Every structure is written in structure tokens, then in C-alpha cells.
Amino acid sequence: MGKPVSVVLLIMSVRLFRIVSVILLLALMITVFCFSAQTADDSSSLSDGITIKIISVIFSDFGSFSKAEQEEIINTATFSVRKLAHFSLYFAMGILSFLSVVSYKKIRLSLRFLFSYLISVLYAVSDEIHQLFVPGRSCELRDVFIDSLGVLTALIILFIIYVSSKKIKSLID
């Protein structure tokens, strides 16, 4: 394969990577928006359903507990499940936002990480503001903090992978 053809293929694959990354990021943002657009009752029902499934896996005899015990366990676990969902969704958003900008080599790496962080955190803030307009929902600063922590954790892991891969590549070369 000639050099001009391989350059064209590389450019096409980078463009395809960018397009796919942005589409996945937008799909996740739309998913988060849809979750946030649920009324408080619908959101609680979904969270409780997921929580009950998780609890049923952990406690195989959960159905034999008294109603009062089941409700206490569900109420205790639901908070953790909801916050873990926040963390996980924004962890994924951190990864996808970075993948959307990682191939822009003319932009310093630190700025690519910063942009990824800012776009995700600004989305978290806008998502909480959006919930102010949904019946029964509220804007929670704690959720923005948890979301930001999810993004930051993802970006730290990606940074470690990125730096490690560069060091390994330099050792091989």
C-alpha cells in the first residue's frame, strides 16, 4: 500500500473515531436527560426496582423477610444505588468526552483533559438545573459533586493509561 493511501485511511479512521465518540457521548447525554425528565415518582419506582433486584441477588432469601425489614433494607440501599448510578453514568461520560477530543493532537494533552472534564461537569450542572423543572425533583449540589467525582475518576484512570502506554511505547522503540 502506498504512503498516500495509508495517510488517507488514517485520516478517515480518525474522523470515524471522532464521529463515533461524539455520537456515543450525545447518546449518553440524551439518556441522562431522559432519566432526569422522569417525575419523582417514576424515578423512585425505577430506582426501587433496580435496588430490589440487586438486594435479591445479595440476599437470596429476601422474599422471606418481613415487609418492615424489606422496606428498611430497600430504603437504605436505594440512596446508595442512586448515587452509584450518578457516579457510573458520569464516569462513562468522562471516558466518552475524552475519547471525543483525544485525537486532536494539536491541542495540548492537559487542555484535552480539561475540556473533557468541563464539558461533563457543565452537563451535570445543567442536568441538575433541568430537574428543577420536573415535578417532584430538585437540584442537588451533592449530585453534581458525585457526578464530577465520576468524571474525575475516569479521567485520572485514562491519564494513567495514556502515560503508561507512552512509556511502554518509548521502551519498545
The helix fraction, in percent, is over 70%
Biggest beta-sheet profile? none
Mean pLDDT: 91
H/E element order: HHHHH
* Structure annotation, total helices: 5
Which class do the helix and strand fractions yield?
mainly alpha
Strand content: under 5%
Q: Kindly state the number of beta strands.
A: 0
Descriptive overview:
The protein is mainly α. It has one domain. 83% of the residues lie in helices and 0% in strands. The chain is built from five helices and no strands.
Task: Provide a short characterization of the protein structure.
With 173 residues, the protein is mainly α. 83% of the residues lie in helices and 0% in strands. The longest helix has 35 residues.
List keywords for this structure.
mainly alpha
List the helices and strands and how they pair.
Elements: H1 3-36, H2 40-58, H3 67-101, H4 109-131, H5 141-172
Helix pairs in contact: 1-3, 1-4, 2-3, 3-4, 3-5, 4-5
